[in-house]
Amino acid sequence: MVVFLGIDGGGTGCRAAVADSAGTILGLGAAGPANVNTDVTGTFANIMTATRQALSGHTIAETDLVAVLGLAGANISAAVDHLHQMLPFARTRIVTDAVTAARGALGGADGIVAAMGTGSVFAVQRAGVMRQFGGRGFVLGDQGSGAVLGRTLLAEALRADDGFAPMTPLLAEVLGEFGGIEGIITFGFRARPAEFAALAPRIVQSDDPAARRIFEDAVKEVRGIVETLQAGDRLPLVFLGGLGPSYSRHLGELWEIRAPLGSGLDGAVRLALEEA
Amino acid sequence: MVVFLGIDGGGTGCRAAVADSAGTILGLGAAGPANVNTDVTGTFANIMTATRQALSGHTIAETDLVAVLGLAGANISAAVDHLHQMLPFARTRIVTDAVTAARGALGGADGIVAAMGTGSVFAVQRAGVMRQFGGRGFVLGDQGSGAVLGRTLLAEALRADDGFAPMTPLLAEVLGEFGGIEGIITFGFRARPAEFAALAPRIVQSDDPAARRIFEDAVKEVRGIVETLQAGDRLPLVFLGGLGPSYSRHLGELWEIRAPLGSGLDGAVRLALEEA
Predict the structure, then answer these.
(1) Whole domain around residue A7: which residue ranges?
(2) What pLDDT does B7 receive?
(3) Which chain A residue shows the shortest CA-CA distance from B132?
(4) DSSP A69
(5) For an interface test with B, which of A81, A122, A143, A162 has the most B Cβ atoms less than 10 Å from its Cβ?
């Protein structure tokens, strides 16, 4: 009997689902982080823990599983190759967690997915073929993401303190909270993307002039990206991630916005079934 | 007898000069890095090595020195306070290396200094009073610096590869050199500012459309900063750092550009003499 395994793995945890060939879920599991580029060994261990949990109570061998894994960091092929060799499944396909999330969100339909969380990544599905765009990370990409918005706010606070940009109530508030420019500089050198992203809700919900300008610039950038990905079509658009609703509000008049059909785990199971 | 010590300390090395009250140099010394924020203990050791070298052949006690130290990382006061307590000099004043560089460049004259190297920092001197602006580091500031230019070029190459920006010969060349988007992403996560800055000469000297746009944006930003610092005056402008000549070429019609009078070490000695 062939059994199908879907894994949805991100920087904070991973989930596993085992399904029969009709797509009926036979078991679920969960474990710790699965960013393959950050930690191959830990990712392997967490995937196996979640998988064994999903298999518990069944007499299914790991070596009978057809698996699709959507993992954070899977755009770095050396790490993916390494993990691939460690896994015991009958067949294994490893894609980024963006691909499984987009597949879960769209099902089989054509559309564009914009995942706007701590990072950002985009995907387009046309006639069942998924292509990923963006998602290049905090330093060089992640346009419109929470981490980039937060970093921009702090940079703007420093600029305002120098007199290079107008001081606003929010910038003054942030300077106060962080202990002035020195506090912001120190934070900036050590903070991880998620810590920058913690500032994002205060930007997207604010009437402060600096916050509005920062978010309007980000909306313009995301709009440009979606326009490029539409390539003249009018595909429906699904927003994922914590900032999704904020972007939806600004871009809902341009394109049809749809709610996601399912999760990244649904997407992984769906892709595994298609491997048959 | 009071003797004066100037220290010019940066991320790659530090230099010391000892002078008498007439400003005559009695001895010089050099040692390793002196970024007080990165490594207080190493900075202390290197400052003392350079100082003892400058004192060799003289019977001058360290405890008789009136010292001004211009150090990288000296905008972080906790590190500065720590170092201050370790140093044996009669009097010690610690400023950023930007302040000593600007003082050396301008002497006593009014003017604006723009140090455009791996990082960037600005200073204005009016009636002997120096104020520093910018210099907030690679993550949140360093506008127009080599590291920021290099990072922007790599981000643009990723955008072009995604179809979000036009592909140009230089972007294609960079993509090839780094091993495609995956190579650029990997580099982006681990590279230090100096590694990003290594790309800058190819940007400021290039006729490539992407390089021109990136550098024109940077020139516009630096121009805006200098305009703010002029505050309606027409102070002369001194450029320092490897990218200084490139910015001079673009901004020389707006303001009088002057060559630096002296080095950061000259500035430190000058400031030490003023402590008397």
Answers:
(1) 3-107+261-274
(2) 97
(3) A162
(4) E
(5) A162
Q: What is the pLDDT of residues A124-147, one digit of tens each?
A: 999 988 888 988 888 898 999 999
Q: Are residues B159 and B86 in the same domain?
A: no
Same domain, A250 and A201: yes
pLDDT above 80: residue B271: yes
Q: Could you report the per-residue pLDDT of A87-99, keeping only the tens digit for each?
A: 999 999 999 999 9
Write the pLDDT tens digit of every residue in A162-213: 999 999 999 999 999 999 998 999 899 889 888 999 999 999 989 999 999 9
Q: How far apart are CA A237 and CA A253, in angstroms?
A: 11
CB within 8 Å: A158 and B139 = no
**ipTM of this predicted structure:** 0.77
Same domain, B94 and B153: no
Q: Do A140 and B155 touch (CB under 8 A)?
A: yes
CATH for A178: 3.30.420.40
Collect all residues of chain A within an 8 Å Cβ-Cβ radius of residue B163. Answer: 133, 228
Do A102 and A161 lie in one domain? The reply is: no
What integer pLDDT is reported at residue A184 of this predicted model?
94
B136–A contact, CB cutoff 8 A: yes
> Looking at the structure, do residues A240 and A267 belong to the same domain, yes or no?
no
* pLDDT score of A20 more than 90: yes
